[in-house]
Amino acid sequence: MRKILTMLLCSVCLLTAKAQTIPNMYRNVDQAKMNHWVDSVFDKMSYDERIGQLFMVISEPKSDNRTMQRLMRYVNEIKVGGILFHKGNPVTQAEVTNRLQKASRVPMFVSLDGEWGLSMRLSGTTRFPKNMMLGAIEDDKLITEYGKEVARQCKEMGIQINFAPDIDVNSNTDNPVIGLRSFGENPRAVADKGIAYARGLEAAGIISVAKHFPGHGDTSEDSHNTLPAVHHDRARLDSVELYPFKRYIYDGYAGVMTGHLYVPTLDKTRNLPSSFSRPIVTGLLQEELGFRGLCFTDALAMKGATTKKSDNPSVKALLAGNDILLAPAAPINDFTAVKEAIDEGILSIEDIEAKCIKILQYKYITGLNKYRPIETKELSKRLNSPHAAWLAAKLNAEAITLLKNESDMVPLRQLDKKKIAALSIGSPAGNEFQEMLGRYDSIACFSISRSSTAAQIQHVYRQLEKYDVIICGIHTVRIPESLQLRQLATKKELVYAFFTLPYFCKEYKSSIMKAKAVVMGYEGTPLAQEYAAQVIFGGIPAKGKLPVTIPGVFHAGAGIFTEKTRLGYHEPEEVGANPIRLDVIGSIAEEGLEENAYPGCQVLVAKDGMIIYDKAFGYFDYDQSRKVQENSVYDLASASKAAGTLLAVMKAYDEKKFTLNNKIADFLPELKGSNKKDLNIKELLYHQSGVVSTINFYLNAIDKDSYKGSLYSSVKNATHPVRFDAKTYVRNDFNYLPDLVSTEKKPGFTTEVARNFYLHDSFKDSIMQEIKDSRLGTRGKYVYSCVNFIMLKMMVENQMKQPMDQLLHNDFYSRLGAWHTTYNPLKRIDSLQIVPTENDQFVRRQLLRGYVHDEAAAFQGGVSGNAGLFSNANDLAKVLQLFLNQGTYGNEQYLSTETCRLFTQSKSPTSRRGLGFDKPAPGTHKGSPCSSLTPPSVYGHTGFTGTCFWVDPDNQLLYIFLCNRVNPSRANNKLSQLDIRKRIQDAIYKAIDRKSQKD
């Protein structure tokens, strides 16, 4: 008997505890201090002030006289307790808030209707995803972090309440008002996500307000325009609509908003909004479910809150049990009506004062007892913090959902074997989706809009016939599936990406059934488009799960996981880098521009397979004719040795075409019998062969009878008017031998050196002869030599039986999607995309644009072992990531792990050089080509035109700097004098050094 009584007593206690859930924010505050402040304020309040605390008016955040007069009237006449701002900008809202708070004797609640953060109402603030996209995220901890960040921004804006989360369960595909505002259709998942968001908000001191009680998810009407009805029995309501609210209340969160809904199961009074129903607000919410926090009405100006003419909505809402009257249509009239209702005994003054005290308690809890005006200086900068940018990006990345993936189509592979086109329906070509796709491969871009004519549409589909893979982005719900799309899905490998409400997929059901892959992006924001593109190419893994069922197409919970296979693009915080310290790069790059060290540059940083910094600075030239873009192409100069020739050498080594101890003469028979007959491959790669640094092949093409005296002079004079470098002036009145040089391409003259400059095909024989006849220095001593790599290129071509540029294109660059990386770029790339180098008034007598700067390479037709490669930072990063991945990229094997390790890890015993790569100089900063902060494992190369790249396997780090410091003259050495490249590298290491970040 005693045991039964004990069990009954425990059950009663448990029920009582559930019936009286005290919100965490209330429970965790110092009760004595709170009560002292509340009592001191309440005792001094007038009758009107106590009533006014229950009113929260709505307004645009404008500071014009008319708006301010109206708001001041609310403050002065009805003593409003709070304000909800509508759409505006942060600074103006902050200024209006400061003026109102100063005028109000009791600090006012400032609220936000920010289901997806401040950007829902305030322009120029971080745009976070809407709830349905968040519903696709598996990691609820991220949702909590999101809530904390929204709370931080609220505090910056002097906001204490956020009318979020929306925990309506969207079980109706035709719901016109909830839709993307819901976390999904699964009540448990909605509860989990909503509570995670509320947890973040309230942990940072912002009151969360769950809405729209008792549940607006299964309606086909909008309560802004009418009174929607919810016709479900109690069992269904308990298991679906009410479930998230129960969880929210039992977990102790502070605010609930009552919706304007007709729910006859809960209150049979015909057409009575639930917000005006005492059985629902008091009986169900407060008594049965035990909610003891603040109860807000939904906006009372909505059509769903319409009452009989004889009834006042504010009075009805208070009678129902609400604490705060949100956005009444006529605040002053409603204030008067409430006072009259008290006088008439309809409303109890004790009840009104109890609500007033509760409101004051939460004002204390949210810090209004220590209110400080909002600091408007640099407000936008504080709101749009690097952490906010990372979090918005991270949420998008985690949400992208792969719904279909036949034959493991995604991530795309074998790029060299597929011609890819991107079609955007409802968005112009070149949008963020297509732009990100273009970072991975050469993509032909097309679009169809609502205004496209039938002829234009037909033309687009005819063009698409040329391609193997079609990536189709759906950006609008206003263009239905077409017959052409259904046919396209049958004939081509079609990949869909939807940037719409998921339910819209059902309109494309026929072609979806035939498509190879379907990606759900949920929203048309830039971030959603960019990360969907990254999923398609493997820059990030697909992790999302569909939060709702798409009838007849996909079920809730669908989602195929993939792996990351290529470089991705993210904010620095994703890899633990300090974004503020990384921004130092910009100031150093700008210093170089100001000091005329170069007219423009690109800087790229990647860590852990993520590009975290990729920016362009300045212009193509000092005339500022064209801005440098991230896709602008630079002459890599000697960086070509490692990004081009060495790749080909490693490929040949992988195929056992040579060993490092083989003699170069074994592969170049012309060298047998010369002083180079015993040089081995290892010596050439280490630059310790004794071979001369360079050979001026162009001298053999000059008619020596066309001038008298020397070509060069250490001083400028009438004979030598052209500056060549820092110490040399040259003449340019000489002629070229007509049997070796032509101004036009013709039989026998096919080697293009520059515009209107062609060499006779026999000139290549003189190049080999020059190499053979050149002097040989001390073997084993480090002397950097371009000629070493010219010979290596010749060896590779002989062994691999094909030109090196063709080998590199077919076996590496086209497969990597590095389509900007090429020799002789004018054959593949628009000249307007290529950054000019020197205005060469000596050898080629023209501005060089798309022609290699290095003379030795130029006189070999632009393809040489020492120089000739062009690229941009983005494409070069793919090559470097291949090294870092030890031979793999895009889930494809290019080189063996053993070969990559050998070439990237080996180091000369007598110098800093690696096998083809340059490396840090041990123990010295001055003589080192890179930052003193780099570990010994780093390898890379620099280039004469002002380029460099460095690969750090210890930190999984890539650094690329590209510029044209030789424009207009190579005599400009300010890049080295200012130490720009090393200082940028210093900044990178300081940004990733967690110890220094704490300083």
TrEMBL record:
<dbReference type="InterPro" id="IPR036881">
    <property type="entry name" value="Glyco_hydro_3_C_sf"/>
</dbReference>
<keyword id="KW-0378">Hydrolase</keyword>
<dbReference type="InterPro" id="IPR036962">
    <property type="entry name" value="Glyco_hydro_3_N_sf"/>
</dbReference>
<dbReference type="InterPro" id="IPR050226">
    <property type="entry name" value="NagZ_Beta-hexosaminidase"/>
</dbReference>
<feature type="region of interest" description="Disordered">
    <location>
        <begin position="905"/>
        <end position="931"/>
    </location>
</feature>
<dbReference type="InterPro" id="IPR012338">
    <property type="entry name" value="Beta-lactam/transpept-like"/>
</dbReference>
<dbReference type="InterPro" id="IPR001764">
    <property type="entry name" value="Glyco_hydro_3_N"/>
</dbReference>
<feature type="domain" description="Glycoside hydrolase family 3 N-terminal">
    <location>
        <begin position="48"/>
        <end position="360"/>
    </location>
</feature>
<keyword id="KW-0326">Glycosidase</keyword>
<protein>
    <recommendedName>
        <fullName>beta-N-acetylhexosaminidase</fullName>
        <ecNumber>3.2.1.52</ecNumber>
    </recommendedName>
</protein>
<feature type="domain" description="Beta-lactamase-related">
    <location>
        <begin position="588"/>
        <end position="972"/>
    </location>
</feature>
<comment type="similarity">
    <text>Belongs to the glycosyl hydrolase 3 family.</text>
</comment>
<dbReference type="Pfam" id="PF00933">
    <property type="entry name" value="Glyco_hydro_3"/>
</dbReference>
<dbReference type="InterPro" id="IPR017853">
    <property type="entry name" value="GH"/>
</dbReference>
<keyword id="KW-0732">Signal</keyword>
<dbReference type="Pfam" id="PF00144">
    <property type="entry name" value="Beta-lactamase"/>
</dbReference>
<dbReference type="GO" id="GO:0016787">
    <property type="term" value="F:hydrolase activity"/>
</dbReference>
<feature type="signal peptide">
    <location>
        <begin position="1"/>
        <end position="19"/>
    </location>
</feature>
<dbReference type="InterPro" id="IPR001466">
    <property type="entry name" value="Beta-lactam-related"/>
</dbReference>
